[in-house]
Amino acid sequence: MSRGWLKAILEAPELAGRIDVVGLVDLDRATAQARADEFGLSGAAIGTDLDAMLAEVKPDLLFDVVVPVARHDVVATGLRHGCHVLSEKPMATSLAAGQDLVKLARDAGRVHAVVQNRRFISGVRRIRRLIESGALGELTALHCDFFIGAHFGGFREEMDNVLLLDMAIHTLDAARFMAGKVPLAVYCLETNPRGSWYANGAAANAIFEFSDDVVFTYRGSWSAEGANTSWESAWRIVGTKGSLLWNGEDQFEAKVVAGDSGFFRELTAIDVPEPADIAQTHGHASVIAEFLGAIEAGRQPETAGNDNIKSLAMVFAAIESAKTRQRVTIAV
Length: 332
Fold this sequence. Notes:
Helix content is 35%, strand content 22%. By secondary structure, it is an alpha/beta fold. It has two domains: 2-117 and 285-304, Rossmann fold; 122-275 and 310-329, 2-Layer Sandwich (Dihydrodipicolinate Reductase, domain 2). The strands form three sheets. It has a nine-stranded mixed sheet with strand order 13-12-11-10-6-9-8-7-14, with helices on one face. α4 (71-80) runs parallel beside α5 (95-108).
């Protein structure tokens, strides 16, 4: 994962010259050295002890690309050394840990944000803009399907609640962002289908209640072979005037009612507007640029921890619902 981050930091036009990579830390020194060599970072310090590295090089920023179980300690260490921190997702492995990070960042007077890079793709920004325009009328529902047979190997295949915690966080955050609504409650059924190569929770079906009587449904699996959806899921957005279909890639179909008679009302196609700011559609690079811009302007970035924790709360409420087989309210 660090390769994608470094590629954006060192090669993206919007980040050119804005960041100097001064150190890389990994539990395995050889891994950090290999990554430095790959990107020509001959001047970067290499180490295995984050606390010692931060004390030595005194950076402004810490990019946290560790496995989830290590996240809290890494972020807390960075904040203690006065760094602004940008983390991989999920923000934390429990809601309490996430809340603690929000408090630590506030007390340190530093920014802690999360790489919710799926927000920063063209399709998601376009849908948000269409919903905000009112072209579909009042939003009533969002539905998405995520089905991919992903053979990662490594830590994911041993994780508990792997789909909800490691992948669905992207989709749930995108739904919350597109809808512009507050998540209130969820009912979720989590399974590990026959033939799954994951230890736990490779599939989930969830119904979320959002504010203003908006419903969001999620159907997903990481062990579904034979008909992969896009990584961004396949979506249906429903409003009082019409609906939008998005395949998660470059296909959009939006239609609204154009007549007032007949069993099926006459429909007309409408355009899905381009993003308001094309610069915000470059994934990791756009997240990092937004992070830097927020620090420079003295504001909170779009994916700041004190906002992202609302998406994390959706995940943990879904996990709790799956365990109890009960509807669970969502509160941060």
